[in-house]
Design goal:
4 helices, 2 strands, flat, two-stranded parallel sheet, mainly alpha, 136 residues
Length: 136
Amino acid sequence: MYNLAYYLTDGIYPKWSTFIQSISLPQDPIAELFAKVQEATRKDVERAFGVLQARFAIVKNLALSWDNEKIWHIMRGCIILHNMILENERDGYTQYDTSEFEEREASRSSRVGMSYSTDMPTNLGNMLGIRNHFRR
């Protein structure tokens, strides 16, 4: 019994049970429609994820040690922020002076805080078992 998610992929991914590759040579109209819709959906997801990766560094990093709820919150937050940025850029003009809100170049710092936790996530053992389960 399989109770995990399936992922739409193309031919570059390994032949794991969780990866659903497109039908390369569909033989009937139903299989052809399935392949066409699957490929379009996969491309849409790749484009959207690429946009988020380009805008937010946290989306670029591996999330294997995070639990699903944390990943969900991060992705939802990034999507909301992305939509807010697009809405702001779309307006293109404002009716008030924004210079009072902008930082001066002299006050900016290129230093990034490097504080992080070295605590191991509680689901690390589960993560390895699930990863091995995908490879079957």
